[in-house]
Amino acid sequence: MTTARRPRVLLTRRWPEAVERALAERFELTPNLEDKPLSAAQIAAALLEYDAVCPTVTDKVDAAALAPNQPRARILGNFGVGYSHIDVERAKAIGLVVTNTPDVLSDCTADLAMTLMLMVARRAGEGERELREGRWTGWRPTHLIGTKVTGATLGIIGFGRIGQEMAARAHFGFGMPILVYNRSPVDPAILAKTGARQVASIEELLRSSDVVSLHFPGGAANRHLINAERIAMMRPGAFLINTARGEVVDEEALAAALKAGRIGGAGLDVYSAEPQVIPALLDAPNAVLLPHLGSATSATREAMGFRVMDNLVAFFDGKEPPDRVA
Ligand code: 8YV
User: Fold this and answer.
1) Which of 111, 156, 218, 245 has the highest local Cβ count within 10 Å?
2) Whole-angstrom Cα distance, residue 10 to residue 125?
3) In order of start, what are the domains of the chain with their CATH numbers?
């Protein structure tokens, strides 16, 4: 029996142990032992050396990283559902297949969006900072008064898998009426599950919601979709939740609205220049700021890794990878 050479696979970061172990049984695996993001030059070099390169959101897989015109690599197995860090057109032009990891992180990302909504509306971040810093002087009827979430109207922009999970949690757990803005019409049966109503414009949604949660992809087309003008359309005291991608919000405009008390607060898990967060947001007490934790549970991170593996196995077996996006 001839032993065919196993495909060489590069992971650009450390992955969950169980996934690395399984991948190493099937492929000639190189994890990034240093666990630091790769530079464009390192990604370009890797494309000449490996059969598959598996990036994450911390890798800028742009035209510079995709410089080789004739890479050895044939597939980018992205660890994550969002892939706005990958220049998909350039990847296609040099013959790379691109896959992602949908479905498996919808629950945990929706859970985190709920966490942010509750934290910001109930001023949990402010309260915890006060207590830990020894500034808590005790209970009083007027202390850290927040906003009631139960029954408030939730506006969801982008009604894909994660948006729908958010709707279910908010509607069935907190009795929230759901408004939806989505580029294409949503199947009435899907809307009916949470009694959601699809509105015709983002503007209508912003004007009619007490909480606005963003669940659409990043990338150039959606950059600053939530800009100063649109933030100004939000109800006074409303909350903006972003677990999607930082670039979809004009962060300076958001920080200005928070500072002016134009809206009630913001709950953010993603930023336009991660891991940097602009000072104006860091200075806003009514912002709850988490470090991109949407999918950060052991169950989900393992499932994401195994989902990449399924795609690699299919691809190298000559089959269509199930989560091909390009
Ligand atoms: C991932 C995410 O952890 O999947 C996504 O799109 O935003 C996160 O949940 C991250 O992108 C990993 O690359």
Assistant:
1) 156
2) 38
3) 8-104+298-316 (3.40.50.720), 106-289 (3.40.50.720)
